[in-house]
Amino acid sequence: MEYSIGDFSKLTGLGIHTLRYYEQEGLIAPERNSGNRRCYSDKDLTWIEFIKRLKDTGMPIKEIKHYAELRAAGDPTLSDRMEMLVQHRKALNEQIARLQDHKIKLDEKIDFYRNEIKRTQNNVSS
Amino acid sequence: MEYSIGDFSKLTGLGIHTLRYYEQEGLIAPERNSGNRRCYSDKDLTWIEFIKRLKDTGMPIKEIKHYAELRAAGDPTLSDRMEMLVQHRKALNEQIARLQDHKIKLDEKIDFYRNEIKRTQNNVSS
DNA sequence: TCTTGACATAGAGTTTACTCTACATTGTAT
DNA sequence: ATACAATGTAGAGTAAACTCTATGTCAAGA
Fold first, then answer.
1. CA closest to D18 C1', residue
2. B3: helix, strand or coil
3. How far away is chain A from the Cα of B35, in angstroms, using its nearest Cα?
4. Each residue's pLDDT tens digit, B65-123
5. Which nucleotide is closest to B37, CA to C1'?
C-alpha cells in the first residue's frame, strides 16, 4: 500500500508539516511518484511508529537521525544500532524508575492534602 | 537556615540563572536581605524540590506557576491544589504505562537485533 | 477549459525553557 | 581604602521541535 502525505498524516497522527520536517531532518525518506509527490509505504509506516516510540521515550531528533543513517546503511550497522537501543533502554529504565519514585511522592502529597482539607473543614465547623 | 543564591544553586543543582528565571516566572519568591540579595530558606528548598518533581514529570512551568499562585493564597485553595495534583497523577500514571509499553517493544526490538546479528554472522562464515 | 484542492519548496515564525551578556552594586578580605 | 568576587537587573541569545506562510505546480471534477 502507498499513501499520499495527507493520508500518511492521518494514519500516523503526525501533521503534514511535521512529516516534511522529519524528512528534512533525515528521519525518513519516502519515495516520490512521477509528479514529485511523496509516496509513503507500509515500511515507512512501521518505521515512523518506531520513531514515535523513540521520541516518546525522550530520544532527541538528532539521535534518531543518527539511528536512521545507520539503518539506511544496512546490515553492517546492525550491532551499532543494537548498541544504541541498549543504551536507550538503560536510559528508559532509569526514567521509569524516576517516574515511579515521583509517583510515590505525589501519592503521599495527595494524602497529605486530603488530611489538610479535612482538618481545615473541621476548624471551620467548630 | 538561609542561603545565598550561590549556595542555593549548589544545594538544588539548579544554576543561578535558572533560579532567577524561576523567580521571574513566579515559581518561587525568596526573601531579600538588607542589600537586596536573595535569601532562600529551607522552606524554599522543600518547595523547589517539589517543583523539580513536577517538572521532571512533565508539568510545564506555566502550570507550576499556577500551582504556586494557589499555594501563595493559602488554605482556601487546598482543594484546588489537590485537584491539580490528582489530575497530574492521572497524567503521570498514563505516562508510566506508556513508557512501560515502549520498554516492552524496545526489549523485543533488541532481541530481534540479537538474532539478526547472529544470522548475518552465520551467513558471513558459511 | 476552468477551478479547486492537495501537494511542492523555501524560509520565516512560534513556543518552551533556559542560558548568557552587559553593566551596576554590594560584601569581604587585604 | 582598594580590589575582587558574588550578586543585582534588564534584556538578548540559544536550542529543540515544531508550525506556519508565501508562492508555485499539478491532477481531477464541473
1. A18
2. strand
3. 36
4. 999 999 999 999 999 999 999 999 999 999 999 999 999 999 999 999 999 999 998 87
5. D7
